[in-house]
Design goal:
With 146 residues, the chain is an alpha+beta fold. Helices cover 34% and strands 18% of the residues. The chain is built from four helices and seven strands. Strands 1-2-3 form a three-stranded antiparallel sheet. A two-stranded antiparallel ribbon has the order 4-5. Strands 6-7 form a two-stranded antiparallel sheet. The longest helix is centred in the last third of the chain and has 22 residues. The chain starts with a strand and ends in a 5-residue tail after the last helix.
Length: 146
């Protein structure tokens, strides 16, 4: 069993955008569990968040994604470049990575319950929450939402 395998360990001929969309969590060697031969990979997937969007029917939809297993690796034949929010995924990924790199020592520090509210992570979450509330208030003021 291997936790957090690389994109290259999981996918055959990975495309550059895979690191923004597919997040390998675990690889299991079936032989070690008397389940046959080969590797099975568990992969978390970026979602656009809207179950009504037409993504790539048959390959990539709101509640599933289809990979083709070739040997011990997966191949993805779907087309996600056309999804409207996909255009922003790389930017979001880089913003999240930058924030993590700047604060990872603080994020990974074990804290007592009373220290959590003062952490950089919590301050960042509070900042986002205030921004969202401001946007909602503005939209209500303009009667865009009820």
């Amino acid at each position: 069993m291997k936790l957090f395998p690389t994109i290259e360990e999981v996918f055959k001929e990975p495309k550059g955008y895979y690191k923004y969309v597919f997040f390998p969590l675990l690889t299991i060697d079936l032989k070690e569990h008397n389940l046959g031969d080969g590797l099975v990979h568990f992969v978390s997937v970026w979602g656009n968040g809207d179950p009504d969007d037409e993504l790539d029917p048959g390959n990539f939809e709101y509640n599933y994604i289809k990979f083709i297993r070739e040997g011990d690796k997966y191949k993805f034949n779907g087309k996600i470049e056309g999804i409207e929010t996909f255009k922003s995924v790389e930017k979001w990924y880089k913003e999240a990575d930058k924030e993590y790199q700047e604060n990872k020592i603080d994020y990974l520090k074990q804290r007592e319950r009373n220290q959590v509210a003062e952490s950089n992570l919590n301050q960042s979450l509070e900042k986002r929450k205030k921004l969202i509330l401001t946007i909602i208030t503005t939209l209500k003021d303009f009667s865009i939402i009820g």
